[in-house]
Amino acid sequence: MAELTQNPSRAGKAALDYLKTPWAVVVALLIAVAVLDPGNWTTVVTFAARALAHTSQYILFAVLLLAYLKATGAEVMVARAFEGRETRMIVLAALFGGLAPFCSCEVIPFIAGLLALGAPLSAVMAFWLSSPLIDPPTLLITAGALGWPFAIGKAVAAVALGLFGGFTVKALMGHGAFAQPLREYKPAGCCGCGSKKPDQPHWRFWQEPERRARFRAEFVHNGLFLLKWLALAYVLEALLVSYVPADLIAGVVGGEGLLPIATAALVGMPAYLNSYVAPPLLAGLMEQGMTAGAAMAFMVAGAVSSIPAMAAVWSLVKPRVFLTYLGLGISGAIIAGVMFQML
């Protein structure tokens, strides 16, 4: 009897969980177009399918690369960026921030452990600011949607923002700021972080059954993850191109000068988009009149304000450090947009 009463609730929960997935949103959007504008349904689907097929080569390479990094244990190399002189730590932290294959659940305990063990806030801030902006899959997907110049520009902006934030915090700490940046925290080590010393990466992962199994699991997991988010992204881009007037976009974030770039950064921060969804949508916005500088500012500000990144900062450090993080992110996004527009 208990099973009869519990199964409906489980089925209802499963159905509710499915409705929260990108697949459900894609189906709902396409059904809405079919009902409200049936004449445009084929155009929307064709646009999204072609864009997804164009990006598929980047998805495949990105998934293989990420699975390889996870299977070899290459992420342990990031810990080495936080050893040695502070200036060296800042530089390496900014560089590794764009290369680290951490998921959002892993980066929080990793950073928490570093802070709890006494790593300088300046180097940690450099990593925090650069890490949400770019990683190998995001780089490839951005290149597929917006071209290699934009992807490389974003990667450069990620490292530059990390350096900007790290050295700014270092200078402020030299004047007595952030003497006690941490809230009370005890590292949990849920992702193997904390005081545990990292092992060496095993580049020939295929020689060990456990690493081969992890490679397969990561390949499937990340492949499905990227596929579902990019399917949603390209459907949204198709709807944007079809139904949002170009004059509206051009009026808000089009034109020359600082104002469109600053506006895009300010809009991008609260309107955070998944790093895999943002490039296709920005491609659509640029077709409608958004400038390249405004697009860069929007993407940088949106990545800095990602929920995992902000949650990590807020949960570990005091409010003044959190506000500094946001201030560095928004100012860095505007500077990145201006520089990219000039170049």
UniProtKB/TrEMBL annotation:
It is a multi-pass membrane protein. It is found in: Cell membrane. GO terms for cellular component: plasma membrane. The keyword Protein biosynthesis does not apply. InterPro entries: DUF318, UPF0718. Keywords: Cell membrane, Membrane, Transmembrane, Transmembrane helix. The chain crosses the membrane at residues 21-41, 47-69, 90-119, 139-164, 219-236, 248-273, 294-316, 322-340. Belongs to the UPF0718 family. This is Permease. It comes from Ruegeria marisrubri.
